[in-house]
């Protein structure tokens, strides 16, 4: 395995464009390896499962939700051990690499705060109109669910077409995530990067996808048409009759309405 102080941003984004992402074997592992799962989890943006209980939590604005306000802290929180997760794959190389992507505008975070404390959220990578979720965490009940709901609403408002969740979990499945073959995932990804909606599986690909081609379809080349990360903020400002908001995310009822219309 190759050792990095950080992964070059161009290399990292090129890997994401080919359906590959880095992981470490543990928080103390000095190296990273590249992962291309045979089965891939995605969350269809029109399929987010907004339960009645989650809707109540979102509308209550129990959490103050921000975006890109504490990216490094969010990554660090995701890397911390917890009772249900004694170690993570986020090592210093991963932290440094995604901090560079964040400073370049290719990574974002959604943070949930309670009583001034960061209690949950998520972060991920954006490329064109594809968003690649990297990690999410809750330190109090429902924090990661609220962060994911705000993320989905933000992606919908900004014109994104694909939300990659990497690996399926019961938690993600309960919120609408599904699992597809890597070849089908790559076809969706290439479609989105090429300017499509990602809804059509290209070429009838079968079997595990090889990075670089799916049924003869080449990896699209940049530049890619990007989504608008701040489009949701305009909706929030309109909902507040133009009042300035410091939270970086609209009121919960705006999020709930947007998710209800698209689910």
Helices, strands, pairings?
Layout: H1 9-17, E1 21-23, E2 33-35, E3 39-42, H2 52-60, E4 64-67, H3 71-79, H4 92-103, E5 107-114, E6 117-127, E7 130-138, H5 143-158, E8 162-166, H6 170-174, E9 178-181, H7 182-193, E10 213-214, E11 217-218, H8 231-239, H9 252-262
Parallel strand pairs: 7-8
Antiparallel strand pairs: 1-2, 3-8, 3-9, 4-5, 5-6, 6-7, 10-11
What would your notes on this structure say?
With about 260 residues, the protein is α+β, with helices and mostly antiparallel strands. The protein has helices at about 10-15, 50-60, 70-80, 90-105, 145-160, 170-175, 180-195, 230-240, 250-260; strands at about 20-25, 35, 40, 65, 105-115, 115-125, 130-140, 160-165, 180, 215, 215-220. Helices cover about 35% and strands about 20% of the residues. A 7-stranded mixed beta sheet has the order 4-5-6-7-8-3-9, with helices on both faces. A two-stranded antiparallel ribbon has the order 1-2. β10 and β11 (about 215-220) form a beta hairpin. α2 (about 50-60) packs antiparallel against α9 and α5 (about 145-160) packs across α9. The N and C termini lie far apart (about 45 Å). Residues about 200-215 and about 240-245 have low confidence and may be disordered.
Radius of gyration: 18 Å
Strand-residue proportion: 15-25%
Helical fraction equals: 25-40%
The first-to-last residue Cα distance is: 43 Å
Structural class: alpha+beta
Shape: globular
* Helical stretch tally: 9
Main beta sheet: strand number and arrangement? 7 strands, mixed
């Amino acid at each position: 395995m190759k050792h990095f102080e950080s992964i070059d941003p161009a290399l990292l984004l090129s890997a994401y464009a080919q359906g590959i992402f880095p992981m470490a074997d543990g928080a103390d592992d000095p190296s990273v390896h590249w992962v291309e799962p045979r089965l891939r989890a995605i969350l269809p943006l029109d399929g987010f499962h907004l339960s009645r209980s989650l809707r109540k939590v979102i509308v209550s604005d129990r959490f103050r939700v921000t975006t890109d306000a504490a990216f490094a802290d969010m990554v660090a929180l995701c890397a911390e051990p917890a009772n249900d997760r004694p170690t993570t794959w986020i090592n210093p190389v991963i932290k440094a690499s995604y901090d560079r992507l964040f400073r370049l505008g290719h990574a974002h975070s959604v943070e949930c705060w309670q009583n001034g404390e960061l209690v949950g959220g998520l972060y991920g990578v954006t490329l064109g109109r594809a968003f690649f979720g990297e990690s999410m965490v809750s330190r109090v009940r429902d924090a990661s669910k609220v962060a994911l709901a705000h993320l989905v609403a933000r992606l919908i408002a900004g014109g994104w077409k694909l939300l990659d969740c990497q690996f399926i979990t019961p938690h993600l499945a309960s919120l609408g995530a599904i699992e597809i073959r890597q070849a089908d995932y790559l076809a969706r990804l290439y479609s989105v990067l090429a300017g499509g909606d990602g809804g059509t599986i290209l070429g009838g690909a079968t079997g595990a996808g090889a990075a670089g081609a799916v049924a003869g379809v080449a990896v699209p080349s940049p530049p890619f048409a990007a989504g608008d990360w701040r489009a949701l903020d305009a909706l929030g400002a309109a909902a507040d009759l133009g009042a300035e908001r410091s939270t970086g995310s609209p009121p919960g009822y705006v999020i709930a309405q947007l998710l209800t219309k698209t689910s």
